[in-house]
Amino acid sequence: MRPSGSGSVTVDFGPSTPPRTSDDFEQVPYPPSHWANANPEEELPLYSVNEEKARRRVPKHTGVQQFASDADNYDDEGKDVYSKPRSFKAYQSSGRPRYPPTPPPTSIKEFLLQNVEHVTPVIYTLLACWTRFHNIGLSNTVVWDEAHFGKFGSHYLKREFYFDVHPPLGKMLVGLVGLLAGYDGQFEFKSGAEYPDTVPYVAMRVMLATFGVGMVPLGWYTAVELGMSQWACHLVALMVLFDVGWLCISRFILLDAMLLFFTFLTVFCMTKFHNQQYQPFSFDWWTWLVMTGLSIGWVTSIKLVGLFVTALVGLYTIEDLWDKFGDLKMSVRDQLRHWAARIACLIVLPILVFMASFKLHFMVLSHSGPGDAQMSSLFQANLEGNDFSRNPLEIAIGSRVTLKNVGYGGGLLHSHVQTYPIGSAQQQVTCYHYKDDNNEWNLLPRWEEPPYDPKTPLRYLKHNDIIRLSHGPTGRNLHSHTVPAPVTKLNHEVSCYGNATVGDVHDYWRVEVVDDIKRGRKEKVDRIHSLTTRLRFRHNILGCYLRAANTVLPQWGFKQIEVSCIPENSPKDAHTYWNVESHWNDRLPAGETKYYRSPFLRDFWHLNVAMMTSNNALVPDPDKEDILASKPFDWPFLHLGLRMCGWGDTQIKYYLMGTPLIWWGSATSLIASLIVLGVYLLRQQRKYTDMDPNEWDHFLYVGKVAFLGWALHYAPFLIMGRVTYLHHYLPTLYFAVLMLAHLLDHFIFSSRRLVLKTKAIAFGICAGSILLCFWWFKSVAFGISGPIQNHKGLLWRKSWNIYEQ
Amino acid sequence: MASKSPQAPRLRQRQVAVPTQDIDDSRLHQEDHVGEVYQNPRRRHPVEKLLETRRASFIVVSVLTALAFALRFYKINQPDQVVFDEVHFGKFAAHYISREYYFDVHPPFAKLLFGLAGWFVGFDGKFLFENIGDSYTDNHVPYVGMRALPAILGSLTVPVVYAIMKESGYSTVIAAFSASIILFDNAHIAQSRLILLDATLIFFLSLTMYSYIRFKKLRYLPFSTEWWTWLTLTGAFMACTWGSKVNGILTVATIGIAVLIDLWDILDVKKEGHTMEYFWRHFTARAIGLILVPFIIYLSFFYVHFAVLTKSGPGDTFMSPAFQETLSGNEMLLNSQEIKYLDTVTLRHKDTKVFLHSHIERYPLKYEDGRISSQGQQVTGYGHNDTNNNWQIIPTKALPEAGRGRYVRHGDVIQLLHVNTQSYLLTHDVASPLMPTNQEFTTWPKDDHSRHNDTLFYININEGHDGDVVKSKSGHFKLIHGSTRVALWTHTKQLPEWAFKQQEINGNKGATEKSATWFIQDIIDSEDEDFKNRTEDHVEPKKPKSMNFFRKFGELQLLMLQHNAGLTASHPYASSPINWPFLLSGISFWTENDSQKQIYLIGNIVGWWTCVISLSIYVGILGADLLARRRGLDPIPDPVRNRLWNSTGFFMLVWGVHYAPFFLMSRQLFIHHYLPSHLASAMIAGSVFSFILSETVNYPVSVRGPSTRAHPKQYADLGIKAPIIFVGFSVAMLVVLLFFAPLTYGTPGLTGEQVNARRLLSTWTLHFAAKVTAEVV
Question: Mean pLDDT across the stretch A365-394?
């Protein structure tokens, strides 16, 4: 029975509702900053816990989780006051400590006082001018690689197309310097030759040495931006100023001074940018990011070694973005902006600069020159002074032609009297990048047909014609058989065999038209034209295709490109495409054709592939002892120097070596840095606090720039197969020098335990010994005149070949 | 320390007060996964429960092992011919039995086992395994017994892999999955059915991993007896791995890295708060267990090696004269004679074994490449006995009438007179015929004294001291030219027709060049009366000398290192490491033309590609985990993540350390070098398989110590899916195995079309393939 409320007596036990829980109250969340301030866990310095723990230290109460998730997408709009204090914290840079901006000067005196810090670098720059320019014209002969780079500079003045393994910017600057100095470009720059009066070599050297001067202030400011103490900044500047290696290499018509300058500049821009990190997307931030990108572009356009410093910037950026990726307070929009800014400035911009330098290169070099054959036939046809336009247009049996491989990096079909040392031992067929009579081939009919007679009517070459190719100078026929090719073993060997009367059906090649650049698809091509028609040559018996794909032959083939016959038919493979380049036939009228311009991107890519191929071919020859070459292990401790010129008693002698103290000290500091880092990490693991977090960040940041920079510039040379020389270490040395300064700074000049006097004495010893050491060795860079034996005391290591043995 | 004044926060002070551990962070974290943490073991799928029982596990592992034995012993007598590297390792086993000294780049443990096995089955050591294809039955070699050893070890690897996975906390199905990748693998089967070292290497590698995992699981019970046992066993097995094959050093590196990581954690004051004394105890224990013990075991292999090989054999010539004199029957020991001035001798080059030779013919004036010679009398290297090899040693100082003063000693200046043409050996600054960088050697008439200085040579005994007498056969020396300091040298290049294709002799400017070593082969004649006493018949047999074991050991180690680096000659089946995981290349071990039989080492493509895919998934998971954690997300529950990082990470370490170094090596490399890594990748595959199918793992697996906090347990539950997938996978593996079985077992022979069918990848170079007729387009 249902109890009735009115009739029965009820005992009032209080309200019948269940006891109230916390759910009944509105949850008023604490502001996020409350937990940040109130929770004792948070007060643990973050550096004492690793990444994992740091994250876990956030309490997991439900309420707090709500805050945590709220905080991520907190609608800020300027109204929220609680989350503001977070960004209120002063930004602690691991680079240079930030000073408040100075008020605009009101008087000249104030302006001077504000800029008094720049006096020191100015003095260093003046000193650098003296060391770099002092007696710069002492040797009036072509010293060392001036023979190359002077010559390349001349090509720009003569506007003749040439080919070299280095990108063009540095050499264009050499050309520009020549232009400014009034050089006419007619000197040949033979190694060791004396400069005639027409070559203003002193002016050219001075202008290029200016880049060397620029290294010194850059070194100073980089040290400043890295947050080193004044003492250490002085040391960096002094070492850059007084290293005889850097000095020596800056004083000639070489690319190295520019390479070094732009390497320094890139590091400087990067450190400068790092110090702008507290104000992302500000004007300064953008300026230095763009500057970094530009200088990456410049340095790689001078020598590809610049890619190593690019890699350093790349690593720095990756680490930076990784940090930003972990910054949960940053909005996705900002994340993307950061990414986009880096991609635009550090990837796209440098590539544009690099390509622009090639564009300029092509624009300046508009005349035919020694490097023509590296490029596609169409490109060559557009060079002035080229006679391709005089070529008869249509090819016929009996024509004499050169055949150009269309693939990137392809050369001209070539043969010479030397035979294959392996395989069939018949005459070699290669691909060659220079113009030469040995590139000429005669188009002849098959053996069964009547021999070519100039009196019979012309027979134009068409698709599917079967012909014989006879090598001009030797008269042998292009031939292939089932012997494996010398390098690409899976292909058939191509050789030259027989003569005008001896031969067999293995000499037959079927001409297959691919297309014509001018006339379009295969169907529209009836007669084969020179330059524009792309062909393939199919071996009539074996069905394989004539191919040259940048495979370098060994020394017996003079490092030329292997030509083989590939059994697989891959119609898309441009390395099996050929076009007729030069064409001679007296019976045909000379052509008068305008050609299509070769597109820039194609030429750019073509040239770069060719550069890579030649660079890889620069491998040391085991049979030849190159007295100048050295191994990377010889460099850090200066095991060897390099004689830059002849060593006769009457010659001015230059010996490329470093100031020993700087090289030895910097190399030692690299080893020391690893030990120091290991010790610090061990001590941290045992919870010794040696530094506060900012100091530790700074220690790591500078150490990373110096060590990684060094490693990235050094390790690739260990792996590289090509010949290496001492001057390859010069950009690398900069990072070693930074490390030496950093460690001295860390242990002496920025030490809190040492008194000023100790630091001053230590600085005096360092600076003094560098100066003395420089003074002792200065003649190797300024030039040694007279018999070398008169200059005593230079042989600090027995392995240096300074004196005659 | 603790009573530092708080107001002066100085640097370099040690934070003594460890933050109180009142917030148990790991437990806090696990509360996210409450449901899983308190998972009831009884709530698992019945199949899972059934499989996890001891008996089920036992049955599974027994079946796997039985299958492994069956697959590895099937037709083990096929082929009854020498296959691939049996040429080497069979020969070495024979040498142990005949006790003749040999030299090899690999340490002796596995070869000693083969020797033991051979001795056990009655092999007399007479057969020398000269060529691939030599018949065993014709030569009465009990080869089956010798092949049984790797087959047993290879079969036992399968249960060890199973045990590793079980110990690491994976379900029975997962453990069986990993084991089956090895079980059904053609490459592992082919490699362990033959007299090769890899089966031993892989078996001991897996045992090392197993013991290390057992040791690691006892980390909360340090210094207990069991802990010590597994520590020592890890060291012992590690030594066996290293002793089997030189690649075993990578296993040592793996364990080394794992131990360093482990020690780094113990050092971490934040984690456990251990004292330094405690750390040093751990350090010492590991140093004993993982350095001292393995080293002693490794040394003992060599001790046995030297103790067994007491007779002279083919390896003599690699060793130093002092070493050779410890071997009985060594020619050097028997016939080494001291050389006197005016003896007529023959000089022989140590590496290429040619005699220093000269004949009346002259160098052509102009070489093919246009360089000019001196047109002097040719000096060449000649491989055969000839009177033109005879040279007389002429003193450059006054000799006493008799006595010790007439002996040729280290550092003496001598002239060499070519007896037949009566001219002195000479070198000068003219480029040699083949090498522009090296000096030409020629001779100069005896009576013409105009070039006396160019005929002077220092005779420098290798590692010789002043006063050492030059001995025939045992005295290795360099001949250094007096005025130009070049060393008499030769290389294997032949001169052209004008020198009868004899070997070129030239002067090498690197006077320290190791290959410029010569020795005196025979004393032909002497002006001394006691000459007869020094010829062979009159000499008393000498006793072998003894040499300190450690010096022997050191010398052999050095030589092994040098020769290992020197194996750079190209080999048709050598492949580059990047091809290995994808199984792009194999090795042809053996072929028989008549019956079209062949053995081609290639892995089971299903298994290998599963491993590669798993590896990439694993790397992907870790990458995703890193990225997610960077963004403050924590998608993987802690126990599972720890398993992925620590346990699977260890497998990954094994894989990487056994693989990556090959990229840096320039020696010839073969796909079987990848097998240890493949073993590790099979375990990673199991782990990834488990990760995909289940959100839990068996946790914790470590043995609980007295002070360990009780962790809430959880259990893996793979349900019914896993066994079904496993069975399907095994069937696929088996089908592929059987399809390729003719290539693995070398029988039966295949027709051309059958071979073509098995050539799944175009990079496999199988023999007896049928010609594909070219399609005419």
Answer: 83
Our CA-based measurement puts residue B18 at a distance from the nearest CA of chain A, in whole angstroms, of: 9
φ, ψ of residue A466 in degrees (nearest 5):
-105, 125
Query: Please, how many CA atoms are within 13 Å of residue A290, restricted to the half-sphere of its CB?
Result: 7
- Single-letter amino acid code for the residue at B324: Q
Residue B661: is the preceding peptide bond cis (ω within 30°)? no
Question: Which tokens is A466 given?
Answer: 């079967």
Top-ranked range on mean pLDDT: pick from A138-147, B23-32, B557-566: A138-147
Buried b (16+ CB within 10 A) or exposed e, A748-760: bbbeeeeeeeebe
Scan residues 437-456 of B and list those with Cβ closer than 8 Å to A. Answer: 437
Q: Report the alpha-carbon distance of residue A563 to residue A435 in Å, rounded.
A: 17
Helix pair angle (B648-657, B198-217), 10° resolution: 150
CA–CA gap between residue B490 and residue B434 (Å, rounded): 11
Question: Residue B682 is encoded by which pair of tokens?
Answer: 């099979």
Q: HSE-up of B541 (CA within 13 Å, CB side)?
A: 6
* Percent of chain A surpassing pLDDT 90: 39
Q: Residue B136, class by beta-carbon neighbours within 10 Å (0-12 exposed, 13-18 middle, 19+ buried)? A: buried
- Indicate the residue of A326, A686, A690 with minimum beta-carbon distance to B269: A686
Phi, psi dihedral angles at A510 (to 5 degrees): -95, 130
**C-beta atoms surrounding B691 within 10 Å:** 20
CB contact set of A440 (below 8 Å; sequence gap of 6+): A400, A401, A402, A471, A472, A473, A582
B510 vs B214: CA distance, rounded Å: 54
The answer to whether residues B392 and B417 touch, using CB atoms and an 8 Å cutoff, is yes
Catalogue all structural domains in chain A, each as residue range(s) with its CATH number: 1-58 (no CATH), 211-249+627-805 (no CATH), 388-593 (2.80.10.50)
Please identify which residue in the block is written with the tokens 């990079």: B763
Task: Say yes or no for a CB contact (<8 Å) between B268 and A569.
Answer: no
Who wins on pLDDT, A72 or B327?
A: B327
CA atoms of A128 and A119, how far apart (whole Å) = 14
A691 contacts B11? CB cut-off 8 A: yes
Residues ≥6 apart with Cβ < 8 Å to A21: none
Burial group, residue A454, by CB count within 10 angstroms (0-12, 13-18, 19+): exposed
Site from A689, A699, A754 to mutate, B interface, most B CB atoms within 10 angstroms = A689
Q: Is any Cβ of chain A less than 8 angstroms from the Cβ of B15?
A: yes
Nearest chain A residue to B26, by CA: A56
Q: Are B183 and B67 in contact (CB under 8 A)?
A: yes
Per-residue pLDDT reduced to its tens digit, B571-629: 767 788 898 999 988 888 888 888 888 899 999 999 999 999 999 999 999 999 999 99
Vertex A255: Cα angle to A157 and A385 (nearest 5): 25
Contacts for B407 with CB less than 8 Å, ≥ 6 apart: B338, B339, B340, B341, B469, B470
Residue A376 has pLDDT above 70, yes or no: yes
Please work out, in degrees rounded to the nearest 5, the angle formed at the alpha carbon of residue A741 by the alpha carbons of A738 and A742.
80
User: Residue A681 and residue A50: Cα distance in Å, rounded?
Assistant: 12
Asked if A689 lies within 8 A of B23 by C-beta distance, the reply is no
Size of interface A-B (CB pairs under 8 A): 66
Å between B266 CA and nearest CA of chain A: 9
Measured distance CA(B566)–CA(B564) in Å, rounded: 5
Q: In this prediction, does ipTM exceed 0.85?
A: no
Distance in angstroms (rounded) separating the CA atoms of residues A244 and B335: 61
Choose the mutation target among B18, B24, B28, B773 for the interface with A, i.e. most A CBs under 10 Å.
B28
Computed on alpha carbons and rounded to an integer, the radius of gyration of chain B in Å comes to 33
Q: Quote the tokens at residue B539.
A: 């000499």
Q: Which two tokens stand for residue B730?
A: 């095994």
Query: Which of B 50-109 lie inside 8 A of A, CB atoms?
Result: none
